[in-house]
Amino acid sequence: RREVSLLTCHGAGDWISVRPRVVARRWTGENKARKGNNRQDEPKLSSSTFPLTGDSAHNHAVVYWSGQNSSVILILTKLYDFHIGSVTESTLWRSTDYGSTYERMNDKVGSKTVLSYLYVCPTNKRKIMVLTDPEFESSILISSDEGASFQKYRLTFYVLSLLFHHTKEDWALAYSHDQKLYSSVDFGRKWQLVHEHVTPSRFYWSVLGLDKESDLVHMEAHTPDGNVQYVTCRALLCSEPNREYPFPGYVDINSLIVQDDYIFIQVPTSGRATYYVSYKREQFIQIKLPKYSLPKDLHIVSTDEKQVFAAVQEWNQNDTYNLYLSDTRGIYFTLALENVKTTRGLGGNQNLDLYEVAGIKGMLIANKRQDNQVKTCITYNKGRDWRLLQAPSSDLDGNDIHCILPFCSLHLQLQMSENPYLSGAISTKSSAPGIIVATGNIGPELSYNNVGMFISSDAGNSWRQIFEEEHNVWFLDKGGALVAVKQPTVPTRNLWISFDEGRQWTQHSFSSVPLFVDGVLVDAGADNQIMTFFGHFSHRSEWQLIKIDYKSIFSRKCTEEDYQTWHLHNQGEPCVMGQKQIYMKRRPGNYCMLGKDYSRILSAESCICRAHDFECDYGYERRGDGNCRPAFWFNPSTVSGSCSHGQNYLNSTGYRKVVLNNCTKGVKEMYTARKQQCPNRSPKGLQLTTKDGKLLPPWAPTSPLWSIWTRLVVLEGDSLRTNIQLDFGDGTAVSYSNLSWTEEGIKHVYKAAGIFRVSALAENTLGYDSTTLYLHVTCPVEHVQLLAPFVVIKNKEVNISAVVLPSHSRTVTYFWWLGNNSEPVISLDGSISHTFSSEGMHSVTVQVAAGNSILQDTRTIAVKEFFKSLLLSFSPNLDEFNPDIPEWRHDVSRVIKKSLLQEQLLVAVFPGVPSAAELFLLPCKNQSENRKKTEDELEKASDIIISALNQNLVEFELKPGVRVIVYNTQLTLAPLVDSSPRHSSSAMLMLLSVVFLGLAVFLIYKFKSLDKSITVAMHMLLCLQMQCEMTLRRLWPSFLCRRHMRRSVIKTQRKRPLNALIFTRRAARCCYLLNKLLILEMNLSKSAREMGRKLSLIMNMDFSSLL
Fold first, then answer.
1. I need a labelling partner for 921 at 20 to 30 A (CA). Which of 36, 369, 833, 894 fits?
2. Cα(49)–Cα(529) distance, rounded to whole angstroms?
3. Inter-axis angle of helices 987-1006 and 1060-1082, to 10 degrees?
4. How large is the greatest C-alpha to C-alpha distance in the chain, in angstroms?
C-alpha cells in the first residue's frame, strides 16, 4: 500500500503539505443527497484524461495553475525517500491547453537534475523558480515564459524557503540551511547576503505605504551571545552601520510578526511574557490585556480589519484559548469569547476553531467549550454578541427534526484544509455572500461521528442538510454554482452540481473509472470554465489528470432579469455592523453565467447607533444586565501621568464603538468617550523600571561598562509641572522638570560592579511620591580558585576560601559542597569555616555564580589525627618550565611522590614562582590505638627522607636533558602536628636560634687564623646570636629550650598561640638574614676589611623589627 501526499504552491512561496491519501479497500456507492429531476436535455460535461506515465512510484506532487486566462499548468512530481529524508527522483510536466495534454520537461531542465520545489512570482505569474534538491546540487532554475524554457544558476547555499516582494516582481528573499538570509533583485540570478543567524520564517519585506524604503527587510536575528533582536535594514545595504533596531532591547525567539499596519514582538519580563505592538511604524507600546489574564501563549489571528484579533491561552487553560479584540492601534484588548476550542493539525500545530465568513464584515463562527461540551456559536458584530446555530427543521428525507435551543443546535467543524485544493470542513467565498457550506452534526454538542453536510443561504440564520456524508464543495462561476465531490478517502467517478444554492443537485460523471481525488483546480480564469481533477485510479497507478470543461452546463450569460435582491440580516434585524446591506444574487435555478462584471453589493445604508453597536472598553466587563461596568482590578478615576493641567483627555464611558461599525447618531454621543480637562493632582503611582524589565543590566565584554536604561512612569499627576529627582546610587543624581520625553528611558552607565540603590522622587505643589529600585550590576566570572589546606586535623576548625577574578563587590553567590553533603552551604562571603569529623580524603567544591555565569573549583583535603610535613624546594631550572597551572602542579607532585617510593605521602606543589612544595607524611589508617608507635615511625621516615634530600638523591627528569633536584628547605610549619595542645609550640624560631649559634661557632673555628679584624668580626657574630636569643625571649617570655641528645630535635612549649601568617612572614625574613650571613662567609677569604664592613652593615639593622 502506498501513501500519496500533495504539495501545492500557496501564495508567495509558502508550501503546504497535504494529508496522506489513504487507499480504501472497499468502494461504496454515492451518498444520498437532495436531487432534482434530471432534465432530458441535461448538458453533458466534456472531460479528458492524461496519465503522467512513468511516475507511478512518485509520492509527492506540486501543482500550479496561474489562472488569469492562462492555459499553462505545471506539475512537479517527485519520489521522496523517507528513509534517507530526501528526493531521489523528479519529473516536471507542462501543459499549454488547460490540462488536455502534458509535456515532460526533464530534458529542458537537465535529465539528471533532481528538482525539489517550485515557486511562482505572485506579481507576475509568468516568472517561475524551481529549486534543485541540495543532496545532488545547489542550483536554481529560472523561467520568464511560464516554464517554456529555463536557465540554471549555481548557488553557494541551500535554499530552504523563498519570499517574494509584494510589488517588485524581481525581488526575493532566500533563507538558507545555515540560518542566513540572502536577497536578489534580478529574480534569483545573483544573491547577496543580508544577515546571518536569522530565525526561520521571521523575515518580512516592507509594507507599501508604511515603510519608507520599498527594499526594507524586517527580521529577527540572533546576537553572538545568544540573544535575539528585531533588526531592519535595506536588502542590498545591510552592513552593521546601516542596520536599525526599532525595539531597544532583546525579544523572544519566534515572536516577530510584521502584518498589515502592525508589528508585534514578545519580551520576557520577570518570568512572564510581555507583548509589544507598533502601529503604523510608531513607537512600540506594551499591549494591554486584562490585568489577570496572565497569558501563557498568544497568537495573532488577523489584522486585516483595522484591529487585531488575538487568541490568548491564559494561565488556567490547557486546550482552549480566549479570543480578544483590540482597538484600532492594537494596544487595548477586550474579551470577545472565552474557551475557544483548538484542533491539532498534521504538523502538530494548534489551530483555533474560529472562522471568519468571507464576504460579510464582522461575521465569525467559533467552537466554544462550555461545561465539558463544545458548541458552535456565531456573531454578526465582531464578537459583541454570540448565539447558537439553529438546526435544520427537517432532514434529507423530509422528516421533522426536533431540536430546541439551547439544549440542541447545529454544530460545525471549522478546520481549514491544509491542502488549498481541497475545500476543507467549511467553505465560503467573498463573491457569494451569505452562502456557507460546512461539515457538522445536530445535537447537544459537536461530534465527529454521524456527520453530514449543511448549507446556509442567508448568512447562518437558517440551515439545510445537503449530504449525509462528508464532501468537498467548491464554488464555480463566482459562487453562482456549487460542485461537490466525495472525500478523497473514497474513490468516485461522479460529481454533483447545484445552481440553486444546494437545494437541488445534478449528478455528472467525469471518469469511467473511480478516481481517488487528491485535489481539484477550479476557476482558471473568468473566460474559461475549466476544472482539473488529479488523483489515482489505484495505489499503484500513475498520476491521472482529468480536465473538465463545465461551460456547456450554462445555457447563456446572465441578464438583469436573472438577479434578485437579498437583504443581510441577523434573525430579522436588518442592521448588521451599523448598516443595512443589500446584495444581488442569481435567481435559484437559472442556468446562466455570471460573468466578470458581476457586482454582489447593491447598496449599504448606515443605521442609527444602538447599544449592540458598542462593546465594553478596556477595563470594563459586561454584567448580567448587559451593561459594562469596571472590573475589580480597574480604577476608572485614574488619569494618565501624561495628562497635564490645562490639557484635555478622553474619559471613557465604559464603552467603545465596534471597529468598522458604520452606525451614526443615536446613542453614539452617549457611549463615546468624553473630552475632559486634566485635573491638577499630586504625583501618584510613580514607577521605576528598567527598559527591558530586568534588574541585571547587560555587560559589555569589550569594556568594563554597564549601560542601563531606566524608565519613569507617573500613573497620576501633572507631569509637566512635576519635578523628578533620580539618584542612580553610584554618586550620580539628575533632576528633570519635564517627564514627557522619558518614555524612551534615561540612560546611565555604571563603571563598576555592585548593587546600587536607584531612587526616584516626584513632587509638585500638591504633594510627592517616591520609589526605589535595586540594580545588580555584575560581570561574568572569569576565574575561581579554591584555597584550602591539603591536610587538616580531625575535629579542628579549618578556613576555606575562594579567590574570584575579576573581583566582585556584593554580587557573587558562593555554593559550598563539603564532603558528601547533599545540600550546599550558600554564602555571600568568599570564605567559610568547617570542621571535618572523620578521617579520610574529603572533596570540597565551590561554585561561584555572578550574573549568568557559574564557575567552580574542587580540592581534595586529607583529614588525619596527626601528621608530619616538610617543605621542599627545587633546582632553579624547574622555574623555567613552570606554567603555574593546577594540572602541571598535580603532575609534578605525582612525580615527586613516585621518586620517594613512599605510600603514605602527600605532596602539594604551591602556586607561583619560585617553585616550592610541601611534603606530608600521613599515618596509616586505623593507627589511633597505637599512636606513640605511629609517631615514631613518622619520625624515622622523616629522617630517611631528609637524609635523601640532603644528599641530592631525590630527582626527576622533567624533559629529556632537564633533571630537577628536590631539596629540603629546612623550614617546616609542623614537624609533628597534633590535635593535642602540648605539641603546638613553634620549633621554627628555636631552630633559627641554633642555626645562628652554630654558624657563629663554625665561622670562628674556620677563620681563627685570620687577623685581628676577622677575630673582631667573629665576636660581632656572637653578639648577633645573643641579640637574636634576647629578642626571642622578649617576644615570648615562656620560651624554654633543651637539646635532645639522640635526634638533635628542639622541642618547644609556649602558652600563647602563634599566628601562622605572622610566623611564616618572620621565618622568611630570618631566612633572608641567614642568606646574607652565608654570602658574608664566602667573602671572608677575599678581604677581611670588606667582610668587616659588610658585617657592620648587617649589625646596623634593627634585628627586633626584622624578626
1. 833
2. 17
3. 10
4. 154
- Dihedral sign for Cα 436, 440, 443, 444, please: negative
Strand order in the sheet with 813-818: 791-793, 853-864, 840-850, 813-818, 825-827
Evaluate whether 128 touches 105 at the Cβ level (below 8 Å): no
Question: How far is it, in rounded angstroms, from Cα 34 to Cα 503?
Answer: 7
Q: How far is the C-alpha of 691 from the C-alpha of 687, rounded, in Å?
A: 12
- DSSP character at residue 445: S
Cα distances (Å, whole numbers) of residue 1052 to 941, 1041, 1049: 22, 6, 10
Grid cell, residue 1098, equals 648587617
Yes or no: say if 519 and 421 are a contact pair by the CB < 8 Å rule.
yes
Question: Rounded to whole angstroms, how far apart are CA atoms 533 and 93?
Answer: 15
Listed residue (57, 115, 110) closest to 81, CA to CA: 57
Mean pLDDT, the chain cut into blocks of 10 residues (1107 residues total) = 34 32 30 44 74 83 76 88 83 89 89 88 92 89 93 93 95 96 96 96 95 95 93 95 91 95 88 89 93 91 91 92 96 95 78 92 95 95 95 92 94 87 88 92 94 95 94 86 86 90 89 88 66 85 87 83 90 94 85 72 90 94 92 82 74 93 94 86 76 56 49 60 84 76 66 83 84 81 85 90 77 86 87 88 89 83 86 89 85 84 76 86 68 79 85 85 85 41 38 45 43 47 47 38 29 33 41 48 47 47 40
Provide the residue type at 98 as one letter: Y
Strand 655-657, strand 309-314: pairing:
unpaired
CA dihedral (207, 210, 216, 222) positive or negative: negative
pLDDT at 347: 67
d(CA 130, CA 64): 12
CA 901 to the chain's CA centroid: 57
The grid cell for 776 is 545588580
Grid cell of 96 as nine digits: 499549454
Reduced to 3 states (helix: H, G, I; strand: E, B; else coil), residue 387 is: strand
Positive/negative CA dihedral, 435, 436, 437, 443: negative
What distance in Å separates the CA atoms of residue 786 and residue 541, rounded to the nearest whole number?
74
DSSP state for residue 673 in the 8-state scheme: P
979 closest CA partner among 789, 788, 790, 792: 792
Alpha carbon distance 815, 824 (integer Å): 6
Four-CA torsion 171, 176, 180, 185, nearest 10 degrees:
-10
Query: Which residues pair with residue 490 across a beta bridge?
Result: none
Residue 953's region, left for phi above 0, alpha for psi from -120 to 50, else beta, is: alpha
How big is the CA angle at 479 (ends 475 and 485), to the nearest 5 degrees?
A: 20
306: left (phi over 0), alpha (psi -120 to 50) or beta: left
Question: Containing H/E element for 454?
Answer: strand 452-456
d(CA 418, CA 416): 6
- Radius of gyration of the chain from its Cα atoms, rounded to whole angstroms: 45
Residue count of the chain: 1107
Q: In this predicted structure, what is the pLDDT of residue 399?
A: 92
Give the contacts of 459 (CB within 8 A, at least 6 positions apart): 357, 360, 363, 380, 433, 434, 436, 568, 569
Q: Are 319 and 341 in contact (CB under 8 A)?
A: yes
d(CA 131, CA 160): 9
* 703 and 715 Cβ atoms separated by less than 8 Å: no
H or E element at residue 871: strand 866-874
Residue 463 in grid coordinates: 440551515
Provide the terminal-to-terminal Cα distance of the chain, rounded to the nearest Å. 97
